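Recap slide: Sec-independent protein translocase protein TatB, sequence and predicted structure.
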Amino acid sequence: MFDIGFSELFLILVIGLLVLGPKRLPVAIRTVMGWVATIRGLASNVQNELKQELKLQELQESIKKAEELNFQQLSPELSKTVEELKASAEKMRTALEQKAAATNTTLEEQIKEIKNATESTSQTLTEQLTPSEQVTEATTDDVLSPAEQAELAEENDEMVYIQQYYPDDDDEPVFASKVKPQTEEIQDKKA
């Protein structure tokens, strides 16, 4: 359909892995595949309806041609055939109109489902982001100068250094005064 080769597909997957990460990439792939399946289904519905409409139009044209040839001069067998064609054309028209009415409602429902699905996935993805990722996303939306980018990188390095010594579950930092009595006890034991 889009004439995408293996190399382009591989490049898209690598970029997706870098941008989304290994945790969110499968969710994004499933979401995109759902969209593609929905779009394919809608396209096949439209294609089938167009084919039926073309058949109906051809039948109507053949009926008009038969009427132009003076319907009374035809043999009784041909007149029966023309009547049958008219009846089948009318049946197809009513069936097509019913399907069109049903398709319009289902098309609107499918559009609403897609919108709801995209909103829910975007909400779950934002809920899954850690505060540092949200800060990073917020800062990447703005255009940053090289100096600002370097400053942000330094802040991130400092945060990593601090998080090594002060884990998230640790409410109070360990002060040097708490460490000194232990070293004095060790020195007393040596003496």
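The two ends are 83 Å apart (CA to CA).
The chain has a mean pLDDT of 76.
(End of recap.)
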